[in-house]
Specification:
This protein is mainly β. It is built from 4 helices and 27 strands. The strands form 6 sheets. Strands 1, 12, 13, 14, 16, 17, 20, 21, 22, 23, 24, 25 and 26 form a 13-stranded antiparallel sheet that branches. The longest helix is centred in the N-terminal third of the chain and has 12 residues. It is elongated, with a radius of gyration of 25 Å. The termini are close together. The relative contact order is 0.12.
């Protein structure tokens, strides 16, 4: 259950508005012609088009639609996009994203997501980027199917692009809202748009969203007083966007974006509860998550002439993360599995140059060059331990905390992965063209060439002892049928 309140302010000069842009004008005309039916302008085809006129399998949602459906991130967007599946992952603080059943479960610094995630057309390579909050957006675009001949970074299953609201050069605007819900949820957000003249404006928006966890510590849990329960979230974000219309044919946008998550992370719970409360677990490692993403972006649009437009997209981003999670979630009493990211830093940059033809001709085309690089470093630790059956039964009989501290001869092992310099360098050239045979038929063809180079310098793995014999007493390897990612219980 959520209760929402909001406020808005607006002030504008007495003269008529000008320079709203082709995209806004197209949307306004469509809304007027459609009797108020919402029409959204998208860029999935690398040109401003109404979503109804875009020849792609794409869904689009405005900020109002997202708010009305309580969509705050990619995981909650699945309620509006049935072919989209988002699975939280406790070890990494990120998510696994699947489109039409196709995705990638490799969430490490080596993997590339099958569903690409973009913010303002800028690719975010790590799965943690897909946990960012959705606020003060123009709209969200979800494109299904392979993407590569229109985007700088290719993806196998689809792409999700968050398009932030652009500054307005004619109006002073502002808004604020608060959402209150169960589990002590409080979400506050606000926005202010300041025009400094007919050609320059600044828009600043911020959000904070927090709520308590919903996975109770079951009897036998060994956690310090005041520890957050799994599922607790404490997220915040801020964005500043500067729009500068340098010339009638040249426009530049500069964006600084920050996001952080300091919650408890997620945990896997058993599908078969074996008589226990569905929303509880015997925890010996409370969840800790501390990650932040800082991104600087710029976009330049230049109408070279009546036939060709040029667009440049550039970015630099840094993700920092540390977290700890209970990998066994009390499924096997007396066995402890703890996963920790002691430190991690992921730096990336991208440069994309696009050329596109003007709309309305018999032949429409888009071509581009793309360069991308990542430099990652991380230390990831895994600890496993197990007490004797006699010690476990004694603790259970006495109602004590199950303190997993192996004695001589009992099971224990540990491993640490220290990767100080893992890099990815990628270059690509792509193009797509369409020949409009008539009003009903069109022929489209595209091509792409990509060269990726990944390497690891000086990485070290340390293990002691008994590795990889890390299965708990009385079982083998956990299978997808034995566990399921914990999601928030129904409102109450």
């Amino acid at each position: 259950m959520n209760v929402t309140t909001g406020a808005a302010l607006s002030a504008s000069p007495a003269h008529a508005q000008t320079g709203t842009g082709a995209a806004e004008g197209a949307a306004d005309r469509a809304n007027a012609a459609g009797g108020g039916l919402e029409r959204i302008v998208v860029t999935a085809n690398r040109r401003d088009q109404l979503v109804q006129d875009t020849p792609l399998a794409v869904s689009a949602f405005t900020q109002d639609t997202l708010q009305n459906n309580q969509v705050k991130d990619l995981a909650s967007l699945t309620a509006l996009v049935p072919s989209l599946v988002v699975e939280p992952h406790s070890d990494s603080g990120g998510v696994h994203v699947y489109m039409r059943g196709v995705g990638s479960a490799n969430h490490t610094e080596l993997g590339d997501p099958a569903v690409a995630f973009y913010v303002d057309g800028i690719y975010l390579p790590r799965p943690q980027g897909a946990t960012a909050l959705m606020y003060d957006l123009s709209h969200v675009e979800v494109a299904r199917g392979p993407q590569g001949t229109l985007n700088g970074r290719n993806s196998t299953a689809g792409a999700v692009n968050l398009v932030s609201a652009a500054p307005n050069t004619t109006k002073l605007l502002g808004s604020a809202s608060i959402v209150v819900g169960n589990h002590h949820r409080i979400q506050t957000q606000g926005m202010i748009n300041i025009p400094f003249g007919p050609n320059i404006a600044l828009r600043v928006a911020a959000i904070k969203d927090s709520h308590d966890g919903y996975v109770d510590f079951a009897r036998g849990s060994n956690v310090p007083p005041g520890a957050d329960r799994y599922g607790a979230q404490d997220q915040s974000g801020a964005r500043a966007t500067l729009l500068w219309k340098i010339l009638p044919t040249l426009k530049a946008t500069f964006i600084a974006d920050y996001y952080e998550d300091q919650g408890a992370g997620s945990i896997y719970l058993p599908i078969e509860t074996q008589g226990r409360d569905r929303w509880s677990a015997v925890i010996d490692t409370p969840g800790v998550l501390d990650q932040s993403i800082t991104t600087y972006k710029t976009k330049w649009n230049w109408a070279l002439n009546d036939a060709v437009d040029v667009q440049y997209l550039g970015s630099w981003s840094r993700l920092k993360r540390s977290n700890a999670s209970d990998a066994d979630a009390g499924l096997y009493l007396g066995f402890k599995a703890e996963n920790r990211t002691e430190w991690g830093q992921f730096d990336s940059h991208s440069n994309e140059l696009q050329f596109r033809s003007a709309e309305g001709g018999a032949i429409e085309w888009v071509a581009g060059l793309f360069e991308f690089g990542e430099k990652n470093k991380i230390r990831f630790d895994i600890d496993r331990s197990q007490i004797s059956e006699a010690a476990l039964q004694q603790d259970l009989a006495n109602g004590n905390v199950i303190f997993v501290q192996p004695t001589v001869g009992q099971y224990a092992s540990a491993m640490t992965f220290i990767q100080g310099d893992r890099q990815l360098k990628s270059k690509a050239v792509f193009a797509q063209g369409s020949w409009n045979l008539d009003e009903r038929y069109k022929v489209t063809a595209g091509a792409r060439y990509t060269k990726d180079h990944k390497f690891d310098r000086g990485g070290q793995n340390w293990a002691c002892p008994n590795w990889p014999d890390n299965a708990p007493r009385g079982t083998t390897v956990l299978t997808p049928n034995q566990v399921a990612p914990a999601r928030a219980p129904p409102a109450r």
